[in-house]
Design brief:
Protocatechuate 4,5-dioxygenase, Chain B, three-stranded mixed sheet, alpha/beta, 22% strand
């Protein structure tokens, strides 16, 4: 019998009301593609997107998700990785749940894919790791809005793991155009505005140049899953392009102790 992972941060990180949530997400997406040209670009294989409260990071996340609008019908599986914030995690954690709920509906976990992953020593099932974790949850409404058909989810909370262990997981599930890789990560935390801008530019340059060894946990909370994606991107001859780089001082106008946000597409 299946179980459902219920939303943990609705009405905190984003609206719990479906109509209000849908309107907010659509607003971010439309603002990112005001002239209708962004969604006509080549379909990305992967995204790196932030995961703070929507009023802070939603406009930045929208700039990456808008790239999926005209390609949503092809994507049938999303491999979603985010860092552990609530509990210590060894390796990469799959959920116990067979479905994830958001205010916009249900998403089935790809049980065939999770069974494949459990053959890897760095992957295990840990329902507690998923219970309160926001880094994956906040991506779901964006995915539900831009993907026009049904899709399954492979949700992984990443804790103490090596980038190569993440890369091994991504290679196993890489697939073709039906599979999208999404890495959830914010950038620097709690610097003054100008310091954050400088630090985030340095981090962004390393991401765009596929320099996984130059990334640091204190500059990107999703550092390890990003590193794993960059390793695979380099091997496969892909590019990573920054589409937005701001911080909470830009989106909320509070310039003290800001958090950095970047959106990237892998093509």
């Amino acid at each position: 019998m299946g179980s459902v992972r219920q939303p943990a941060v609705a009405d905190m990180f984003y609206p719990g009301d479906p109509d209000q949530l849908r309107g907010m997400v659509r607003g971010y997406l439309q603002a990112s593609d005001a002239d209708g040209t962004v969604s006509d670009e080549d379909a990305p294989k992967g995204l790196i997107v932030p995961h703070a409260g929507y009023v802070y990071s939603g406009p930045v996340a929208g700039t990456a998700y808008a790239r999926l609008y005209s390609h949503g019908e092809r994507i049938r599986r999303v491999v979603l990785l985010g860092p552990a914030h609530r509990v210590p995690v060894r390796g990469l954690a799959l959920p116990e749940a067979t479905e994830f709920a958001s205010p916009l509906g249900m998403i089935a976990v790809d049980r065939e894919a999770t069974a494949e992953l459990l053959a890897l020593p760095q992957v295990r099932v840990d329902g507690v790791a998923h219970g309160l974790e926001h880094s994956l949850e906040v991506q779901l409404p964006f995915l539900q809005e831009v993907l026009s058909g049904e899709f399954s989810l492979v949700p992984l909370v990443v804790g103490e793991a090596a980038p190569e262990e993440v890369a091994e997981v991504l290679e196993l599930l890489w697939g073709g155009e039906e599979t999208l890789i999404v890495i959830s990560s914010d950038l620097s935390h709690y610097h003054d505005y100008e310091v954050a801008r400088r630090v985030d530019r340095e981090t962004s340059r390393s991401i765009e140049e596929l320099e996984s060894d130059k990334l640091r946990l204190d500059r990107a909370c999703g550092c390890i899953p990003i590193q794993g994606l960059l390793l695979v991107a380099r091997r496969r001859g892909l590019r990573v392009m920054n589409v937005d780089l701001r911080n909470s001082g830009d989106t909320s106008r509070t310039r003290d102790k800001v958090v950095g946000y970047g959106s990237y597409v892998v093509v």
